[in-house]
Amino acid sequence: MANVVVVGAQWGDEGKGKIVDWLSEKAEVVVRFQGGHNAGHTLVIDGVTYKLSLLPSGVVRSGKLSVIGNGVVVDPHALATEIERLREQGVALTPENLKVADNATLILSLHRELDALREGSNEGTRIGTTKRGIGPAYEDKVGRRAIRLRDLANLPTLRPKIERLLTHHNALRRGFGLPEFTVETIYEELASAAPKVLPYVAATWEILDERRRAGDRILFEGAQGALLDVDHGTYPFVTSSNTVAGQAATGSGVGPGAIGYVLGIAKAYTTRVGEGPFPTELTDEIGRRLGERGHEFGTVTGRPRRCGWLDAVALRQTARISGISGIALTKLDVLDGLDEIKVCVGYRLDGVEIHRLPASQGAQARIEPIYETIEGWQGTTAGARSWAQLPAQAIKYVRRVEELIGCPIALVSTSPERADTILVADPFED
């Protein structure tokens, strides 16, 4: 049986939480491998809603090992708060079923402040971040000055590391005309977090290798979407980590041979949160209808999502870059009742037709979508659990999407409830 990687195939918010939860019943281990608590997953199980920001979706299932990998940047206080909130909802989280990589980078208050300062300083340079310190923490990681989780286990060694960190950050704060951080302030912030998170800290790469060799099925869970990848997305309007499937190996400490099936999650239309290009965005009544019917508000931020038609060009591109084996098409029911549905099948750039998303920021801002119009359906797809329950035209739409993106549809989701899923190919069996 293949280990499975789940990645968002658009700009995030595709409904990965439900799909990961649905798949986690067949997995023994669920791993989060990149991002931070800027991403959010909403799970609806037996009528109970769980909102996750940092923890893997598998935590709500008993008998599973949940792992936060080294590719994740961790706000220790936010992690402790999320653990406690889920406990209040009856989710049993212990150091036995939750492990956090000892070499994961920490997000501190100075990262959050810097994130907010940059985002609010000049309207022309806004990226649309959540201001939770994700980007600055990744900067410190690659700058080799970060504090890591394992450092909390040896508090006497922290002060020299904090001094090195503040050499960089206090210079920035002087540039903003702000008071400098003291070593003692950051030390107290870290020391207070240590007892809350250290029980969960482990060499997770070793645990994953042991579980893989023992034959356990591993589900690797990505955050955000491939179009927000720092290399392959709509740069600079991207997140600060690699969100494509290849990061599952790097961000969890397993070899690429441990990955079998890559499942990409895509909505039957398109949304994005924050700034940046969005070729198929709709600002008219149809766009508002998609947002209202799809309840398009960010799990973490509450921000309304921008909505538009499905962009088959961008989706085909991310399928290739991530090596996607099959697509889980979500929120098909949101399209119910539309007389016609449009799908972007190409772009026009300076009068020339192209069939890929260009890397240039300027070109991305200038491209115009070329649409194919598909007949809609008046029946309902909501709650369908088999092809027989779908209107004929809805099936035609799914099949046309499959053709346009050059990738098979592995399953179709027709509501937030995990059981409302049409399975075409089982990623763990394929």
Task: State the helical fraction.
Answer: 25-40%
Number of strands: 20
What's the CATH first level of the largest domain? Alpha Beta
In what range is the share of β-strand residues?
A: 15-25%
Give the low-confidence spans: none
The geometry reads as globular
- Provide the spatial order of strands within the biggest beta sheet: 9-7-5-2-10-1-11-15-19-20
What radius of gyration results from the CA coordinates? 22 Å
CATH homologous superfamily title of the largest domain: Adenylosuccinate Synthetase, subunit A, domain 1
Number of DSSP helical runs: 12
| Largest sheet, strands/sense/barrel | 10 strands, mixed
Distance N to C terminus: 8 Å
Could you tell me the mean pLDDT?
93
Any chance you could write out the topology, listing elements then pairs?
Elements: E1 4-8, H1 16-24, E2 29-32, E3 41-45, E4 48-52, E5 65-68, E6 73-74, H2 76-88, E7 98-101, E8 105-106, H3 109-121, H4 134-142, H5 158-175, H6 183-197, E9 201-202, H7 204-213, E10 218-221, H8 247-250, E11 261-267, E12 270-272, H9 285-293, E13 306-308, E14 310-311, H10 312-321, E15 326-330, E16 340-349, E17 352-354, H11 361-366, E18 368-375, H12 392-405, E19 409-413, E20 421-423
